[in-house]
């Protein structure tokens, strides 16, 4: 179990770091495009398409597992205050199981769409250049799969009130 915990934790952190690097790359890309356009009247081709089809999708979804692991998803505690710690742990485990199920449904749905887009070689035209966009469709199933893994790994940690889980 500790191997799965370490794998989930490290994978989540790695994807969050990749997301951070993506923010930096997007910022540099946009700033460079604006500076070039303002000073030399030259624009970087396909900036809009790259930002919307690559950066934004990646930045929105890669940190999903990290947020799940750090227990920073939005949640409502309207009734849980009425229950004891044991019942609350079991409810949290049930929510983690439900979340994992939803993530797995999203994995299957987005994987099928990604394969479909790969098969047709999906692209967008940008300045008479066909820019492939099918690779970004594979980011979704990857992000959802890791979030499902994190949710599943958290269940026994929640139930046993494992201190390793609380320190993360």
Automatic annotation (TrEMBL):
Keyword Cell wall biogenesis/degradation (UniProt): no
Compartmental location: Cell inner membrane; Cell membrane
Record domain Tripartite ATP-independent periplasmic transporters DctQ component: where: 26-155
Annotated membrane topology: Multi-pass membrane protein
Listed transmembrane segments: 12-32, 52-69, 90-111, 131-153
Keywords: Cell inner membrane, Cell membrane, Membrane, Transmembrane, Transmembrane helix, Transport
UniProt keyword Membrane, yes or no: yes
GO terms for MF: transmembrane transporter activity
GO cellular component: plasma membrane
Family classification: Belongs to the TRAP transporter small permease family.
Function: Part of the tripartite ATP-independent periplasmic (TRAP) transport system.
SUBUNIT field: The complex comprises the extracytoplasmic solute receptor protein and the two transmembrane proteins.
Name of this protein: TRAP transporter small permease protein
Organism of origin: Marinobacterium lutimaris
